[in-house]
Write a structure and sequence with these properties.
The protein is an alpha/beta fold. The chain folds into 3 domains: 5-175, MoaB/Mog-like domain (Molybdenum Cofactor Biosythetic Enzyme, Chain A); 180-257, Alpha-Beta Plaits (2-Layer Sandwich), CATH 3.30.70; 262-416, Maf protein. It is built from 14 helices and 17 strands. The strands form 4 sheets. The chain has a 6-stranded mixed beta sheet with strand order 2-1-3-8-7-6, with helices on both faces. It has a 5-stranded mixed beta sheet with strand order 14-13-15-16-17, sandwiched between helices. Helix 2 (25-35) runs parallel beside helix 6, helix 3 (50-63) crosses helix 4 and helix 9 packs parallel to helix 14 (396-416). The chain starts with a strand and ends in an 8-residue tail after the last helix. The mean pLDDT is 95.
């Protein structure tokens, strides 16, 4: 029977807990562990204090087969990982003279005398094994605590990565028995995280393989699938089965996978159908056009974009009647419609997108609050305008980003022949 291995990652340092330095080590290690079929239960950041580090080591060793610690192996008084590890193991620290000489050779090879403070880096918990550091002075430490293999590695990313690849990864790959963890993310738009979660709740059950979870960012819901198997083929087969079922349930909500963007997907659909698009933007300031033209080859389907921020520009460049603007205001359904229709007529594109709204933080009112956006989508059959209350608690950047994504998603659904994005 396939028994998966799990890991806990501990990152040590006041500079991390205070937010002065971003922990990139944990993300890198989690990715490397996934490649050999080891999942990560949690990432923990701990200050330079012996007791908190000890407690976290003990808890990690109780929960996982692998504990990876980065940081706290330097020569200064705040480098306490070796002390905390010895305390968690219930053993003393001992100086290994041969490792003092190794560190000394590292310095002399660079034409320097070894500071005596560096001798502390040759102190190890009794029963542990040093791990050679070919890039720096701090050896790593390998130890056993109950059922767990514990590796303490330097916090310097270059040193940590070299040590992991050379000395840690081979052992863990062997212990994992050739297991593989594969992952994908299905990107969804047009439904909330709770709505999506309800549709796939049973697939998100704890203890299931593959595991399924959701994340939300800028209105995009990522459905994450992680599958573990005894081989790459087995892991992929399990993942594909779950992916097929999720796609069956979510259908049009899924626009792409992994790093695919809405603009890329829309571009492919336009190119496949031999269709073209143009944009007329006010509150989004050209963001929709930017997203479309960020895609290589977009000249095949993107014709032009105009940013008509002022009322005069809307009239002069898109033919929006001045009386329409005076009667309804720039942020209105009639103006969004006239912008899209005028853009399509001027560009001769198959589709035209318009956006007008209040991105804030100023300019809102009771009738037209910050976050109100009207989006028009015109084609040969006519023009449909939708009203969106994106949210006054979002900042200007977020409102514009969300509006651009909604606009692109509406075009995607139109190209697929699916129901349009609902007004709200």
């Amino acid at each position: 029977m396939f028994t998966p291995m799990d890991a806990v990652l501990l990152s040590i340092g006041n500079e991390l807990t205070l937010g002065e330095t971003v922990d990139t080590n944990s993300a890198w290690l989690a990715q490397r562990l996934a490649e050999i079929g080891i999942g990560v239960l949690r990432h923990v950041t701990v200050a330079d204090e012996i007791d908190p580090i000890r407690r976290q080591i003990e808890m990690a060793a109780a929960d996982a087969e692998v504990v990876l610690i980065t940081g706290g192996l330097g020569p200064t008084a705040d480098d306490l990982t070796r002390n905390a590890l010895a305390a968690a193991m219930g053993v003393e620290l001992v100086l290994r003279p041969e490792w003092v000489e190794r560190i000394r050779v590292f310095f002399t090879g660079r034409g320097r005398d070894m500071p005596e403070a560096n001798a502390v880096q040759a102190v190890f918990p009794v029963g542990s094994d040093p791990i050679e550091n070919t890039c720096g002075t701090a050896p790593g430490i390998r130890a056993l605590i109950r059922r767990s293999i514990v590796f303490a590695l330097p916090g310097v990313p270059r040193e940590m990565r070299e040590m992991f690849e050379r000395s840690v990864r081979p052992e863990l790959a062997s212990a994992a028995g050739g297991a593989v963890l594969v992952a994908t993310v299905l990107n969804c738009f047009g439904a909330g995280e709770s709505d999506i979660g309800e549709k796939i709740a049973d697939l998100m059950a704890r203890g299931r393989n593959p595991t399924v979870g959701t994340t939300a960012k800028q209105g995009i819901i990522g459905v994450r699938i992680h599958s573990r198997g005894r081989s790459a083929d087995e892991a992929r087969e399990l993942l594909e089965r779950t992916e097929v079922e999720i796609r069956r349930r979510l259908r049009w909500m899924i626009y792409g996978r992994d790093s695919e963007t809405l603009a890329e997907v829309v571009g492919r659909l336009l190119a496949a159908g031999g269709k073209t698009v143009a944009t007329a933007e006010s509150c989004t300031g050209g963001l929709i056009a930017q997203k479309l033209t960020d895609v290589s080859g977009s000249s095949q389907y993107f014709l032009e974009g105009v940013v008509t921020y002022s009322n005069a520009a809307k009239t002069r460049m898109l033919g929006v009647p001045a009386n329409l603007l005076a009667e309804h205001g720039a942020v209105s359904e009639p103006v969004a419609r006239a912008m899209a229709e005028g853009c399509r007529k001027a560009s001769a594109a198959d589709y035209a997108i318009s956006a007008t709204g209040i991105a804030g933080p100023k300019g809102g009112s009771t009738d037209k609050p910050v976050g109100l956006v009207y989006l028009g989508l015109a084609d040969a059959a006519g023009c449909e305008v939708t009203r969106h209350l994106i949210g006054r608690f979002l900042d200007r950047t977020d409102i514009r980003e969300r509006a651009a994504s909604i606009a692109l998603n509406r075009l995607r659904l139109r190209l697929l022949g699916e129901p349009g994005e609902p007004s709200r």
